[in-house]
Amino acid sequence: MKYSLCIGAYPGKDAVYHLEKVKEHGFDGLEYYAWWELGDLELFTAEQKRIGVGIIGTCTREFNLVDPAYREKYLNGIEQTIKACQKLGIPSIITQTGKEIDGVPRELQRQAMIETLKLCTPLLEGTGIVLEVEPLNGLVNHPGHYLQRSDEAVQVMDAVDHPQVKLVFDVYHQQITEGNVIRNATAYVDRIHHYHIADNPGRHQPGTGELNYLSILRAIQGTGFDGFVGLECGFKGDTDEAIQAFKSTILDQL
Question: Domain count of the chain?
Answer without folding.
Answer: 1
